Amino acid sequence: MSTATFVLAATSVNVGHVVGAFIGGLVIAGALIWAFWFGMRVRDRELPRPLPDEQPHLPEGGAVHEASEVREPDEVPMDGGRRLMPHELHQAASRTGKDQRRRRWMPGSSGSFGSGGLG
Predict the structure, then answer these.
(1) Residue (of 102, 40, 34) closest to 68 by Cα position
(2) pLDDT in the model for residue 19
(3) CA distance 40 to 38
């Protein structure tokens, strides 16, 4: 835009719009400056970052890997065909299974969707 356009805009009937936009810009800039200042004050009150010596280290034996095992479920007892209530069940427990091979998906058996049929 040229200088003549700015002069025309400033001297026209819409001077209030130009002044309002300028004041709105000042308010937004002031809010951003205040938010930055407030964030710095909050950051200064936080605990300092840990030093490299205070960082967690690997155990002496190296990284610990997760252990997995196949567990057998504890069967829910049947009480003459009536539904058991939660307060009637004993503490749920499971035991290590005899067969420790992981189950694998087999073609033709049920997958995660539907019954494993053709569609």
Answers:
(1) 102
(2) 84
(3) 5
User: For 32-77, what is each residue's pLDDT tens digit?
Assistant: 999 999 999 999 999 988 898 898 888 888 888 887 887 777 777 6
User: 3-state secondary structure string, 78-114?
Assistant: CECCECCCHHHCCCCCCEECCCCCCCCCCCCCCCCCC
pTM equals 0.37
Of the candidates 89, 61, 65, the residue with the CA atom closest to the CA atom of residue 75: 89
Calculate the alpha carbon distances from 84 to 23, 89, 93 in Å: 71, 7, 17
Concatenate the DSSP letters of all residues of 27-85 into one string: HHHHHHHHHHHHHHHHHHHSPPPPPGGGS----TT-PPPP----EEPPPPPPBTTBPPP
CA 84/CA 81 separation, integer angstroms: 9
Considering only residues 26 and 64, tell me which one the structure prediction assigns the higher pLDDT: 26
HSE-up of residue 22 (Cα within 13 Å, Cβ side) = 8
